[in-house]
Give the backbone structure.
Amino acid sequence: MTVAPKARIVTLTTDFGLSDSYVGAMKGVLLSCCPDVQLVDISHEVPPQNVAIGAMRLAGAARFFPAGTVHLAVVDPGVGGSRRGIAVSCGGHFFVGPDNGLLSLAAPRTTPGWRAAELTVASAWLPSVSSTFHGRDVFAPVAARLAAGSTLEEVGEPTDAIVELGLRTPTVLEDRVLGIVSDLDRFGNLITNVRETHLNRRQVVVVSVNGRSIAGMSTWYDPAREFVALVNGEGWLEISVPEGSAAATLGAAIGTPVEVRLA
């Protein structure tokens, strides 16, 4: 079996924010268990308990890291309950977190060589485990062990399936695509669930959100335009107010309907 080189990088994706000590505590555990690990923050501003957005942000960044990277993700509204803790090996990377769909977009089961383990080896955890902070007491020490060279078999029991996230997909009609706002970035841009592929290479006539219409598509954040609709770097249709906030200007939020009319 070919083993991917160990990059000793651990990324962190959480909904913890940075005003509390939670992220710092997890980093302390990681550094204590694997002192030479390199820690990289993907995001700690996932909306609280929003597993879908956490999964999207993790998937958007994880593929750009080198082989051997361990991705630690914690958006865990069911912490302390019946949900499992898992680790997944996929595409030369490891993913560690709760089995609630959070890892499934970044580590799809259809990837060749995909393997997963339920985190059942208590000796890989901290000696004392809080029922409300598995990110610190279970997932962080497991991630550190994987970064240091442990195998999946050394941290858990093999499992054939994990919870897979079912994202809401747009409705594609003959002359339009009906979607929703699925995320907001810190600039107030509206990230929709409409992918470039849903447009089927057809000309976009109008994009409508909350009664406002945007004529056609742009290729950049053109400050000469009040509103801009474009395909962003992840392939999603995005709506922006150059030098402003589309969310505030349009009164839009996650779940707001978006209509794309095609020529």
